[in-house]
What we know:
The chain is of the alpha/beta class. The protein has helices at 3-14, 25-36, 55-62, 74-86, 122-135, 184-190; strands spanning 45-49, 66-71, 92-95, 108-114, 136-147, 158-161, 164-166, 178-180, 195-206, 211-221.
Amino acid sequence: MSNLMQQKWNDTHLDPKFRSLYPHDSVVRFVFRHFVRDADKHNKTVLDIGCGSGRHLKLVAENGIQAAGCDYASVGVQEAGKILEGLTLKADLTVCDFTQLPYADQVFDGALAWGVLYYGNKTRMQQGISELHRVLKTTGVALLLLKSCEDLRYGLGREIEKNTFFMEDNQTNEQGMTLCFLDENELRDLFKDFSVVTMNKNNYYANNLSQLHSDWIIELTK
Ligand SMILES: C[S@@+](CC[C@H](N)C(=O)[O-])C[C@H]1O[C@@H](n2cnc3c(N)ncnc32)[C@H](O)[C@@H]1O
C-alpha cells in the first residue's frame, strides 16, 4: 500500500466538496434492479469497496439492505460513519486496502467498486479484482467503474508501466497518484473468471467540452 496515496486520499476526504451525498445513477439502477424489490433484502449484504464518505452506503442502507463499506482512507470511513449515524442508518465499516479485504470467502450478495480499483498499477488492480471474486457469493453481483484509455487523465503523467501513469498534473486533483487505464482486451482478460453481464463505455464531456471522461462500467456475476 502506498502511504503517500493513502495520505492524499485522507486529505481529499477532509475537503467537504468531495463529500457528495448523491449516488451515481448507474449505482442507483444496480441497487434497485438487484436488491430493492427483493422480499429478503434485509438479509442481503452489499459491500462498497472504496466507499469514501459513503454516498453509496447511504443508498444501500436507506433501502433496507445491509451495508458494509471499506476504504483505506480512515478519514473517508470516519466521515461515512458520521453521515450514516446522523441519518440513523448503519453500515459495517472497515479501514483496509482493496488488495487484502478482511472478509471471509463468499459472504457478500453484492459489491460495488465505483471509481476505486484503478488507483495503483495493474498488479494491484488484479489483486483487487481477485479479492472481489473471493468475497462475492456464487450468486453475487458486482458493479465497477474503471477508466478507459480515452479518459482525459491518460497520458497526463509519467508512464511507469503500459497504460499506468504517475500523475504529474493536478487538473483532476490526482497529482502524485498512480492510475491504471484499460483497453478493451485488458478489460476482457481481467474479468475472465467472472460471467460478465455487461461492459459499457461511458464517454462524457465536462468543462465546456474541454475534458473527455471515459469510464468502463462493468456489471458482473461470478
Ligand atoms: C474516486 S473516490 C470514489 C469513492 C466512492 N466509491 C464514491 O463513488 O463516492 C476513490 C476512493 O477509493 C479509495 N481507495 C483508493 N485506493 C484504495 C485502496 N488501495 N484500498 C482501498 N480504498 C482505496 C480512496 O480512498 C477513495 O475513497
